[in-house]
Amino acid sequence: MQQASELLSSVFGFTEFRPGQAEIVEAVTAGRNTLAIMPTGGGKSLCFQLPALCRSGVTVVISPLIALMRDQVRALSEAGVAAGALTSGNTEEETNAVFDALHAGELKLLYMAPERLASSGAQQLLSRAPISLIAVDEAHCVSQWGHDFRPDYLRIGELRRALDVPLAAFTATADAETRAEIVTRLFDGHAPETFLRGFDRPNIHLAFEPKNSPRRQILDFAAARKGQSGIVYCGTRAKTETLAQALREAGHPACHYHGGMEPDPRREVEARFQRDDGLIVVATVAFGMGVDKPDIRWVAHADLPKSIEAYYQEIGRAGRDGAPAETLTLFGPEDIRLRRSQIDEGLAPPERKMADHARLNALLGLAEAQVCRRQTLLSYFGEDSEPCGHCDLCDRPPELFDGTEAVRKGLSAILRTGEYFGTGHLIDILLGNATDKVRARGHEGLPTFGVGKEFDKRQWQAIFRQMMGHDLVRPDPERHGALRMTHAARAILRGEESITLRRDAIRAAKSARPVAK
Ligand code: ADP
Ligand code: ZN
Q1: 41 CB under 6 A from ligand 1?
Q2: Based on C-alpha coordinates, what's the Rg of the chain?
Q3: 171 CB less than 6 Å from ligand 1?
Q4: Which atom of ligand 1 is nearest to the CA of 38?
Q5: Of the listed ranges 310-319, 323-332, 379-388, the one predicted with least confidence
Q6: What are the tens digits of pLDDT across the range 61-100?
Q7: Mode of pairing for the β-strands spanning 473-476 and 482-485
Q8: Which is the closest atom of ligand 1 to the Cα of 18?
Q9: Cα(91)–Cα(97) distance, integer angstroms
Q10: What ipTM goes with this model?
Q11: What SS3 class is residue 357?
């Protein structure tokens, strides 16, 4: 490690390792198979570049990002490190020069695009060269269920077996499913030494609120941060336009942005956001890939994101400069219904849909969290941490109560009406409201009729929302959002398990608007 520390400053010009880097560098240098999960910008490249210099022979780096490979080769060459790249963008001369340097034993790092692995020529070339390590960047590209699947990544496992050298895989995608797939496909199922570090973004304050009066909530949040650059993410294109309008009327400079816009106006918004101070962009998730503004001071979600990964990525755009940044995510039963039906109605195979429901559940669990939100978020990514003192739940610990009885009443209303109705009708039954619909169905005769009068309508809405958040009930897209019980609910109904609910959500719901009785 002495050598590594010296190279860190002499070659890379850094005074110290970032969190996590030293351990990874040590394991990779020692030739152990490793899987390192670090967020984007966490400093992954150093974790294979430095070991490449410490080890004899050549390190092959597989990466799907041609521009990034070229940047790294250029930066390494400037630092006096012999590096070359084989990509489809090469001229014949460039390729020949790389081959010559490789054969002459002059290269330390050889970057390769995955397509290159498909040619038998390249495989032969590698088997004759003194390769001592394979580094795989963006290792999640090996996952067939991910958005970035690269079929050629499936050849990497074969290459590792043929060369019989250690492999170090890197990715920013932390979910357990993708990790397992990486282990299967790159390491033949033999668990590598795994590192997971640096997912915390301590300068970002985390907060969720149930949607009570969503537009008001966003306007208030923006008003408290007037003059600061921020992003509001919306679930639909139409909403980006109306909400941007509302923000302008409230005196903020605000633009909308979505995938349905022409390229020119889109680029204009991106450029203005980059250039101006204090612009608010109200956008769909289409806004983000190209956004590289370090001083975004806040991110708000007017609608619930689609998964916990999407949430993390979207709030992560705030505060890249390390200065304090704030976030607010709104959520309500409509969001849950929409996200569930988007998954169910999609074209993905059934296993994929189950995984997507699980990712959404993780986000709902975060929304309904009862302890430190950051701890809940980081534990999803596999990182242990202490209560952060910098989230809404640490600021104001929620009051909890035993909600078993209330949940059981809600579930029995669902069950006795054949899992055929949405929350509105169920709440009427629980409150004993003999509406036309209730009478038409004869529901005023049910044993559940009027058993829930200890709560009012808004409180019941909060209870049903928490039931959805805990995945006890799911809206059925085939029946206009009729609530159906999940397996987990049956244990509660049978009295085998109890459940804790947050009272603050119920209080907030009540104080938001006087209840019409
Ligand atoms: P990613 O994990 O997204 O691949 P990079 O490897 O590109 O991230 O690193 C992100 C940035 O952090 C780069 O600008 C890099 O120079 C810088 N960096 C990496 N390690 C250190 C370090 N130990 N000290 C200071 N800066 C570092
Ligand atoms: Zn906290």
Answers
A1: yes
A2: 27
A3: no
A4: 2
A5: 379-388
A6: 999 888 889 999 999 999 999 999 998 888 889 889 998 9
A7: antiparallel
A8: 23
A9: 10
A10: 0.97
A11: helix
